[in-house]
Amino acid sequence: MGHGDHSAIDLMRTLIKLVVFLCIFGGIGAAIYFPSAKYLRERNKPKYRLEPVVEGDITLNVNATGTVEPVLRVTVGAVVSGPIEELFVDFNDHVTKGQLMARIDPRLFKAMVLRDEAMLQTRKAELQRAEANLQQAVNSEKRAETLLTKGVSLISESELDVLKFTRLAAAADLSVAQTAIQQAQANLETSQANLEYTEIRSPVDGIVIERKIDVGQTLAAQFQTPELFIVAPEMDQRMHIYASVDEADIGLIRDAQSQQRPVSFTVDAYPDQVFEEGRILEVRLSSKEEQNVVTYPVVVETANENTSLLPGMTANLSFQIQRLDKIVKIPNAALRFYPPDRKRVHPDDRAILDGVETAKKDAAGRDAGSQNATERADQRRKGRLRHVWVHDGEFLRARAVEAGISDSRYTQLISGDIHSGDQLVVGEQIK
Predict the structure, then answer these.
(1) What is the tens place of the pLDDT at every residue in 303-336?
(2) Cα–Cα nearest to 48, from 403, 345, 349, 330
(3) What's the topology of domain 62-71+238-326?
(4) What does the pLDDT look like over 282-310, one tens digit per residue?
(5) E strand or H helix at 149, and its extent?
(6) Backbone φ, ψ for residue 345 (5° rounding)
(7) In whole angstroms, what is the distance from residue 240 CA to residue 243 CA?
(8) pTM above 0.85, yes or no
(9) How far apart are CA 160 and CA 228, in angstroms?
C-alpha cells in the first residue's frame, strides 16, 4: 500500500470523526435548544386573569350625598323687649306644646296692666256720669214740653231749644264715654298680652336643638324679632335628608319615587351601619346650577326612633332604581378589557378590533355636541352591544353580548353566547 493510500485513509477517518463529533454536538444542542425554546415560549406566553360569569341578583342604584335635617325647624322668638330673667330649658331638652321655656322681666308690663286697669275704671266712671247727665237733660226737656202742652207760659221756645240741645250734647258725651271704654279695654288687653308674651312658651312638641340666649341678656324686639330657641318637632320619630341629584339621573329618581323604591344610606358617625328605611318624599322642581352642573333637590324621609340621626350629618345615599333577581351577570372588568396586542387575537376576531378602533377614531374626530338627538339616542342604544373575551388556546376569542343594568361589580347579560360558569378575561397577570 502506497503513501497516497495511507493519506486517503487518514482523511476519511478524520472526516468520519468530524461528522460523528458534529452529530454528537448537534444532538446535544438540539437536546438543549428545544426544551429551552419551549420553556421560553411558556414563560413569555401571556397569562390572563379570569373571572366567571355568575348567576345572582343585581341592583341599579343612583348615588348622591345629602344633609340630615329635622322634618321642621320651629323658631321661637320674642314679641316684647326686656332682659331674660329665667331660663327653664336647655339644649336637647324635650318640650311639649305650651311649656314655659324662658321668662322676660315682667315688671314693666305688670305696671302697664295696672295703669290700663285704672284707666278702664276711670272710663267706666265717666260713662256713668255721662249717662246721668243725659238722663237729667232728657227729664228737663220732657218737663218743659209738658208745660208748653198745658199752655203754661213760664218757659219760652228759646229756653226749650236750649234744653233740647243740652240733651243732644249729653247723648254725644255718652257715645264718647262708651268709645273711651272700648279704647281703654283694648289698651288693657294689649298690656295683658304683652305681659303674657314675657313668658316664652313652646308652640309645638319637640326637641330643643338650639338655644341662642342666656340669663341676663337683653332683648330688643322693636327692630327685629329675636330668635331665642329652635325646636325640632318629631325629631325622635323621623328625619329628612336633603340631597342634590344630577339632572342626568333625575328621571330615574322620579321613576323610583313612583314605584316606591327604597333608599339606603350611611352616615360618617356610624360607618358600619346601613340605614335602609328611607323613602323618596319629594323631587322638587327648583333646579340649581353650579359650575355648569344642574342639580335638583330630592327630599328623603327616614325613621329616627332611637335618635341616631342628628341635624347636619352628611348622608351617602343609594337610590334603588331597579332590582333583578336570579339573572346571569358579567363582571364589569370583563366589559372593560381590551386586548393590547392584536397578534394574540384569533384572526377571525381581529376585524372586531378594527371596528372598535374605527369607532374610537370616529368618536374622537366628531364632537358629541355635533350629533343630533336621533344620533345620540342610537349611540346610547349601540352602547349596550359589547364584546367580552375568552381564552381559547393561544388566542383570545370575542363573544358579542348585550349588556343591561349594572352595579359596582357586575352587569346584567341580556343576550349573548356565554353562560353561567364561563371564564372571561378581565386582564393580564403581572409577571
Answers:
(1) 998 889 999 999 999 999 999 999 999 999 999 9
(2) 345
(3) Elongation Factor Tu (Ef-tu); domain 3 (2.40.30)
(4) 999 999 998 899 999 999 999 998 889 99
(5) helix 107-149
(6) -95, 140
(7) 10
(8) no
(9) 68
